[in-house]
Amino acid sequence: MNPYIVLVIQLFLSGLNYIIANAATQSIPPANLTFLRTIISGVVYLSYFFYAGLPFKFRGRDLRLLLFLSFISVSFNQFGFLYGMKYTTATEAAILYTLTPVFIMFLSRTYLSEKITAPKILGAIMALGGATFTVLSRVTPAQDDMHFGFDHFKGDIFILIAVMAWGTYTTLGRKLIVKHGAINSTVFTALIGTAMFAPVGIYSSVGYNYFSLSGGLWAEVLFLSLGTSVAGYVLWYYALGKIEASKVAVFINGQPVITAILAYIFLGQGITAMFAAGAIVTIAGVIITQVDSRKKVGQVSPAGRDAQKTI
Predict the structure, then answer these.
(1) Measured distance CA(279)–CA(50) in Å, rounded
(2) For 53-103, what is each residue's pLDDT tens digit?
(3) Cβ-proximal residues to 265 (8 Å cutoff; 6+ apart), any chain
């Protein structure tokens, strides 16, 4: 299949991910939704594990790293994302997730000894400033909106926690991917992360009637489990293996735009001038951090290459 068609499909799946997560978390508690999502996607990964006969060769330091990444990928990234989506808007979450390359840039400097150039510093300042402006544009001091403002801000904080968890997973996970391969690392991380979150999911399920969920809610759960956690990953790695990472990054930076359009159509979430201004500055800053002036035009830095993947 044409990789550009694959990227367009993946882009719409990513945009829908924010929309559906925003809608589903209004009816299903985030812990229960995370539990369902990981269990369903885990069944797919477990089936592939047996079908492909994947070897488990993680030992010593690699095993400890695998366990750590498994923990943060589900308990902090996926749960943090869904908890945040309960209170924030789909478009805002998409904007905040574009900060992933910025976090990866600083983490790569610490753990991978990658240099931070002047354009990257400028881009990071722009991205963080734009994101801050975007978040604050939603907080109102009006008395009748104070509760909304606090909950909304709390949602943004949890989204940022999820972004930092994803950035950590992407940065440190590169070591495992290089040594053990992307498929092995992804499958075992998902399976172990599911097992680690299971106690929380089981506890939150006590007294919760899953049979009361409507067919529409189950469809949303299945999309988050299969459309994002499985199909999204497959499409991402397929496209990344066919065309340059810089071109992939251009498509992924369009996620907030697609999400904003879909949020307006399906959720009725409008966009203010202040929000749009903050979003533009954020995306511009992220693009600057992805371009390494020391390399030839069109080549993207490692941080930008690995970061732009949806949840």
Answers:
(1) 44
(2) 999 999 999 999 999 999 999 999 999 999 999 999 888 888 888 787 777
(3) none
* Rg (alpha carbons) of the chain, rounded to whole number: 19
How far is 271 from 94, CA to CA, in rounded Å? Answer: 13
d(CA 39, CA 33): 10
Domain range annotation of the chain: 3-307
Tokens 């496209």, located at residue: 239
The answer, yes or no, to whether residue 187 has pLDDT greater than 80, is: yes
pLDDT digits (tens, 9 = 90+) for 276-301: 787 788 778 767 766 654 454 444 44
E strand or H helix at 18: helix 3-24
Contact 152, 30 (CB under 8 A): no
Comparing 21 with 252, the larger pLDDT belongs to: 21
Q: Where is 166: in which H helix or E strand? A: helix 146-180
DSSP 76: I
Residue 300 main-chain phi, psi, to 5 deg: -105, 145
Q: Is there a contact between 202 and 38 (Cβ–Cβ < 8 Å)? A: no
The Cα 195–Cα 146 span in angstroms is: 38
In this structure, the number of other CB atoms found within 10 A of the CB of residue 82 comes to 26
Distance (Å) of CA 111 to CA 71, 172, 204 = 19, 8, 36
Other CB atoms within 10 A of residue 4 CB: 14
Q: Is there a contact between 17 and 228 (Cβ–Cβ < 8 Å)?
A: yes
Instruction: Choose among 160, 174, 165: nearest CA to 70.
Output: 165
What distances in angstroms separate CA 73 from CA 177, 195, 302, one per listed residue? 15, 12, 20
| Model confidence, pTM | 0.81
Helix (H, G, I), strand (E, B) or coil at 56: coil
